[in-house]
């Protein structure tokens, strides 16, 4: 069994400005750097065998800050991959979040993201986003999972790696929890920046065991 410590990246400028941030990228704020350093202290005694992150700068920088404090920092390798990126928001990238979610929710008679979460699954929301995108560039559920599952398969194939650090993104963590959390966790509240979500992986099973924690 592999234990995967899933961390949401530290707070960024686009988070601060309440804008949509999928594949677009901005640096960590000072608050984001401090948050990454705090979770690094929580995780410093976990003997990580490998560090993974999406290939965005915000995730990679958060990962490096965590690795720096780890008991295994001298031998830890950091691999980045597009497989672990956030959902691609297409036309809505960089848009004010409230405005974007109104555009996505409006065609089905709703007002905002919370309304959508009350009435639709995470994957259905992905499909609604693509449908509302004037260019239809946003990832739908099938496109998103085709990419992300390649990342999970990559982890499964890592022989001899038991404790894995994975730094990724808010909607991606919600998606994993929705799919593999067996309904035990409230995904209407998104994961906080620098929070910890735990996943266990075997060859035949994927299980979320905790969500959106600031301590172990």
UniProtKB/TrEMBL annotation:
Spans through the membrane: none
Annotated GO biological process: negative regulation of glycolytic process; regulation of pentose-phosphate shunt
Binding site for substrate: 8-15, 58, 86-89
Example GO molecular function: fructose-2,6-bisphosphate 2-phosphatase activity
Active site: 9, 86
GO cellular component: cytosol
InterPro entries in the cross-refs: His_Pase_superF_clade-1, His_PPase_superfam, Phosphoglycerate_Mutase
Superkingdom: Bacteria
Pfam name, any one: His_Phos_1
Keyword Disulfide bond: no
CDD domains, per the entry: HP_PGM_like
Entry keyword set: Hydrolase
PANTHER family: FRUCTOSE-2,6-BISPHOSPHATASE TIGAR (PTHR46517:SF1)
Protein name from the UniProt record: Phosphoglycerate mutase family protein
